[in-house]
Design a protein that fits this description.
Elements: E1 2-7, H1 15-29, E2 33-38, H2 67-76, E3 79-85, H3 93-100, H4 102-105, E4 116-123, H5 130-143, E5 147-155, H6 162-174
Parallel strand pairs: 1-2, 1-3, 3-4, 4-5
Length: about 180
């Protein structure tokens, strides 16, 4: 299975990145291909709401930035994993820009191979996930019709813990 992880953390050694790497190790040990895109290291602008992708663009975004790489990987992905620290109850701004640009990727239909989605979230408090959960449910489960493969959260002292990293490694290894 081809798995695309969109890592929305700006911290190259932070809790979210640690969880992503543990997940990757587990998934690769099970024979899956895992591509991680650190979206904070990319030049990806927000959606302009110009409707070019839904009219003259035939599903192509008018903006030619690093999102083109994500579109290419998305077309080859069987599973998508959204990973982010929580900022004000939602995804990081950088990941939110990428999610908004899915508008073009889902026109006229979702990416052909994409069928599964999971989410990895890190926060300082256990009650901070509402915005991310709302987007996950509405955008990925309902609108795109993807199969929910789970939401993995870590908060406070769990961040970076051996137990949490092993949970993510086991999740990756369990994928079929």
């Amino acid at each position: 299975m081809n798995i695309l992880v969109l890592n929305g953390s700006p911290r190259p050694k932070g809790s979210t990145k640690q969880m992503v790497e543990s997940f990757r190790e587990g998934a690769q040990s099970a024979g899956h291909t895992v591509e991680v895109v650190d979206v904070c290291q990319k030049q990806i602008s927000g959606c302009r709401a110009c409707e070019y992708c839904h009219t003259r663009g035939n599903g192509q975004c008018i903006q030619k930035d690093d999102m083109q790489q994500v579109y290419d990987l998305l077309r080859q992905a069987d599973m998508l994993v959204l990973a982010s620290p929580i900022y004000y109850h939602g995804f990081s701004g950088q990941l939110k820009c990428v999610i908004d640009r899915f508008y073009a990727a889902a026109c006229p239909q979702k990416p052909p191979r994409l069928s599964k989605v999971a989410m990895i979230l890190s926060s300082g408090d256990a009650d901070m996930y509402d915005g991310a959960m709302f987007s996950f449910q509405g955008d990925f489960l309902d609108y795109l019709g993807l199969e929910n493969r789970g939401v993995y959260t870590s908060h406070g002292g769990e961040n970076g813990s051996k137990a949490k990293l092993e949970e993510l490694r086991a999740f990756g290894a369990s994928l079929k």
